[in-house]
DNA sequence: TTAATTTATGTAAGCGATTACATCTAATTT
DNA sequence: AAATTAGATGTAATCGCTTACATAAATTAA
């Protein structure tokens, strides 16, 4: 009780009157130990409050039962649900998840990858594809299984567990076009470290090019998760002579920023202008008017990513990317034009 | 490049033509190595893409440079900002953060604690005080530094980095009372694993008892983070003969649930009824009407918790709890009565 | 009953790093 | 120039655990 130091296998072994090997077996392969000793050892473990030291275990067994996830930020709800689901599946399989955030920075992401690998991560969840080739080379050289989530491409370069941002945005845009909109603006954050946004922009463009007379005004926003910067972008769009009738935002956070700004400026949505988002996070249904957006199955994506990594960890080499479907959700922020 | 196996100190040492001890010194105490060898070793590390193995390092040095945080859930934005700040401070100090979620379950939290300690966590961030004594005993026996965040009590039992939920709720309630409300309802989630909610309820009661003729109807909600269950609780309150003029919700998520339900039922907030929340997360300003709530400095709390744990890790034993101040934010969902 | 097999347990060699201590070289002092 | 000291590097023990192999005990077969 007053011993600050942690009990070790030897302590447990001594108390239970067995060898350290037996203690280890009880912990790792209980079926190989007789009922009787199993109980003795169990009692000793309990009494001492023993927890195996990860370092020793990892070193000896060469397996860490650990995986890593690197997300751009936790502040944004976009990743929360997916990561939560990811973690739950791993926890059920007895795997600990290490999470770190890269702040949308390649160097920091690389540092995080190094650290996680050093910590013994047996698999990595990465968000999106945009990162230097050197990072991929590092991963390949080390032979670390990883999956790319939140996006899906057909390039066959990586294992994806995500959705087709291009197709999803294209579909949403088609819906918008069918409603009669021709003058379409888009507020999107930086694409430099964010392939998802890049694909969404391309998807919108593709849809618009198919319709005669429709045109896109692309307005960039300095951040992908700052409602106030999106509000600023909205305000600038409203100063144009030829105003758009709808604004597609690259995600829900920006869309909400735009809606809030519209309210401030006494511009009513959707009467004066329609606004759409992407992701369908909680706020999409909370904001007034409710936000038309693209629904993304975040939970299922996290689960699928975990499942895939677990399979890879088990040695399964014949794995395929998983494409999840999204769907356009029309809500009050979007209406027919005129 | 094609070697799947990870390079080890020996590999680096061989390539650089030095001993493993020197490689280790370059990595950990570079000032003890001559400029020349430092460069040689650095080049070798670079060429091999070497990352020290955590297990070996931890075992030998007895220091993991790792801390753990256990939060009830990630789905709820309530913890995101604080944890993000916590992680940033740790990362700056070169400490890796391990995060796991307990789903508001004591057993699972205990399991997580064991795992994190096994992983070498040198400090733990826990949310709130409500957990079995046995968990605290375990922590004490192992001599693991921990801080309790998201709450602050004067009992001197733990190191807190948080705010006084009781006082904060009391202050909000006083504001409500000063606006003339007498019939006050409160929607609160389960208190069983959640001391913060318990304190908030007590705080509201304390304020109400001070005012003659004021009374509290406590309506419990089966979850602390389900807007729809809060909506249900709201609907039930609306069936009372003697309806309250204001509903205090134990957090913003529940408050938003109540507001949404009110809208569905064609009850207007705040004309027909006022609603308040707690936490001041993003949605408080997004929802219509904007939500009156208690502002909590989540970011500063995370930073302070990290700072405190770092100090404890450095051996500083004379640490004190940190109480952060909150403030009542009156917004449109709350108005004078009548 | 003895031999063969199965099952349970123990012994001891690593796993990959760090670090106390020893050694060697170079710089400084006397 | 010899003696002392400081600085750089190497040698080898060590951290806590797992596991291949060896051994002992229990069971089954012959």
Descriptive account of the structure:
- Two copies of one chain form a homodimer.
- The first copy, chain A, has a six-stranded parallel beta sheet with strand order 2-1-3-4-5-11, with helices on both faces.
- Chain A is an alpha/beta fold and 338 residues long.
- Chain A contains 13 helices and twelve strands.
- In chain A, strand 3, helix 7 and strand 4 form a beta-alpha-beta unit.
- The model of chain A has no long low-confidence stretch (mean pLDDT 92).
- Chain A folds into three domains: 9-52, lambda repressor-like DNA-binding domains (434 Repressor (Amino-terminal Domain)), CATH 1.10.260; 66-164 and 298-326, Response regulator (Rossmann fold, 3-Layer(aba) Sandwich), CATH 3.40.50.2300; 165-296, Rossmann fold (3-Layer(aba) Sandwich), CATH 3.40.50.
- The first copy, chain A, has helices at residues 9-16, 20-28, 35-48, 54-61, 77-92, 106-118, 133-142, 165-178, 195-209, 227-237, 252-264, 283-286, 298-313, and strands spanning 66-71, 96-101, 124-127, 146-149, 160-163, 183-188, 215-220, 246-249, 274-276, 293-295, 322-324, 327-329.
- In chain A, helix 1 (9-16) crosses helix 2 (20-28).
- The interface between A and B is large, with 55 and 56 residues.
- Chain A binds a DNA duplex (30 and 30 nucleotides) through residues 8-10, 18-25, 28, 32-34, 37, 52-62.
Give a topology summary.
2 copies of one chain form a homodimer.
Chain A: H1 9-16, H2 20-28, H3 35-48, H4 54-61, E1 66-71, H5 77-92, E2 96-101, H6 106-118, E3 124-127, H7 133-142, E4 146-149, E5 160-163, H8 165-178, E6 183-188, H9 195-209, E7 215-220, H10 227-237, E8 246-249, H11 252-264, E9 274-276, H12 283-286, E10 293-295, H13 298-313, E11 322-324, E12 327-329
Parallel strand pairs in A: 1-2, 1-3, 3-4, 4-5, 5-11, 6-7, 6-8, 8-9
Antiparallel strand pairs in A: 10-12
Chain A binds a DNA duplex (30 and 30 nucleotides) through residues 8-10, 18-25, 28, 32-34, 37, 52-62.
């Amino acid at each position: 009780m007053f011993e600050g130091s942690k009990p070790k296998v030897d302590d447990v072994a001594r108390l239970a009157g067995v060898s350290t090997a037996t203690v280890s077996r009880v912990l790792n392969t209980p079926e190989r130990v007789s009922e009787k000793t199993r109980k003795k050892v169990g009692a000793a473990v309990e009494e001492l409050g023993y927890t195996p030291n990860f370092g020793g275990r990892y070193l000896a067994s060469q397996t860490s039962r650990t995986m890593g996830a690197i997300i751009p930020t936790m502040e944004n709800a976009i990743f929360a649900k997916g990561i939560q689901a990811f973690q739950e599946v791993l926890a059920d399989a007895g795997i600990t998840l290490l999470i770190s955030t890269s702040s949308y920075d390649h160097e920091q992401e690389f540092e995080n990858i190094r650290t996680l690998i050093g910590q013994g991560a047996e698999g990595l969840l990465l968000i999106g594809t945009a990162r230097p080739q050197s990072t991929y080379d590092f991963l390949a050289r080390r032979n670390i299984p990883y999956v790319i989530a939140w996006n899906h491409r057909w390039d066959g370069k990586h294992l994806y567990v995500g959705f087709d941002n291009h197709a999803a945005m294209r579909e949403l845009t088609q819906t918008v076009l069918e409603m009669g909109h021709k003058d379409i603006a888009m507020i999107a954050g930086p694409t430099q470290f964010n392939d998802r946004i890049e694909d969404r922009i391309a998807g919108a463009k593709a849809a618009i090019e198919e319709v005669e007379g429709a045109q896109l005004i692309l307005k960039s926003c300095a951040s992908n998760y700052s409602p106030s910067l999106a509000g600023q972008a909205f305000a600038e769009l409203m100063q144009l002579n030829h105003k758009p009738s709808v604004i597609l935002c690259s995600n829900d956070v920006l869309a909400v920023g735009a809606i809030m700004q519209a309210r401030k400026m006494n511009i009513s949505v959707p009467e004066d202008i329609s606004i759409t988002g992407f992701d369908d996070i909680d706020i999409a249904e909370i904001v007034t008017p409710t936000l038309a957006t693209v629904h993304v199955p975040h939970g299922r994506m996290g689960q699928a990513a975990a499942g895939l990594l677990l399979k890879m960890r088990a040695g399964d080499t014949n794995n395929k990317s998983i494409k999840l479907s999204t769907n356009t959700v029309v809500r009050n922020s979007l209406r027919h034009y005129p």
